[in-house]
Amino acid sequence: MAEDSYRTIEGVAEGYYTEKRSRFISYAIPVRSVEEVKEHVAAYRKQYYDSRHVCWAYMLGAERKEFRANDDGEPSSTAGKPILGQINSHVLTDILVVVIRYFGGIELGTSGLIVAYRSAAAEAIAAATIIEKTVDEVISIVFEYPFLNGVMKIVKEDNPEILHQEFEMDCRLTLRIRKGEAERLRNRLAKVETLRFEEEQE
C-alpha cells in the first residue's frame, strides 16, 4: 500500500457471534471524526438500551495515529482492545467497530471474553466492503486569461480532479490530486507566467 493511500470500509456492516448463550452483535461503521464516533456510540446505546455492554474501538486518519478502545464495564482490556486488534490486523482506518453484548447467564472468563469480542469484531469487518482511498491535496491557483491554454494542457496531462473553475480576466482553478503527485503538478504550474498559488481551502 502506497504512503498516500489508506484502507477503510465503504458502508456499515453487521456481524453476529454467540458464546455460552451470550450474544454479541457487532457493527463496523465508516467514520471521519471523534464527533461521529460519539454520535454512533450514543445511537447504539439507545437502540440496545437493554444490553449488558456496548464496547467499541475506533481508528481515525490516514496515518492511523488517532485511536481509542472502550471496555464499557467489561474487565480491563477484554473488549475494546481485541476489537481494536481486529481493526489493526486489517490495517483499516476511519472506522468504528461497536460490539453489543447480551449476557447469557454464564461467565465467560477473561480469555473467553477476549475471544468473543475479537470474533464478533472480525465478523463485522468480514461483512464490510474494504476500499482503498488516496490521501489528496487541494491546490488553488490564480492566473491571467491569456495563459489559460498552457494551464489546461498541464491539467489535462496530470489529470487532477477540478473542484472549481472561473474563467474571467483572472482565472481561478481549484484542483484535487493524490498527495504523491501534488509536487510534480505544483512544479509544472509554477512555471506558468502570472500564475500564483492561493492558500488551500479544504
- How are the strands of the biggest sheet laid out side by side? 2-3-6-4-5
**Which whole number gives the mean pLDDT?**
95
Number of helices: 5
Q: What distance lies between the first and last C-alpha atoms, to the nearest angstrom? A: 25 Å
Provide the gyration radius in Å: 23 Å
**Could you state the order of secondary-structure elements as H and E?**
EEEHEEHEHEEHEEHE
Helix content: 25-40%
Percentage of residues in DSSP E strands: 35-45%
Number of strands: 11
Give a description of the structure:
- With 202 residues, this protein is an alpha+beta fold.
- It has five helices and eleven strands; from the N terminus they run βββαββαβαββαββαβ.
- The strands form three sheets. Strands 2-3-6-4-5 form a five-stranded antiparallel β-sheet, sandwiched between helices. Strands 9-10-8-11 form a four-stranded antiparallel β-sheet.
- The protein is elongated and about 75 Å long.
Short description:
With 202 residues, the chain is of the alpha+beta class. Helices cover 33% and strands 37% of the residues.
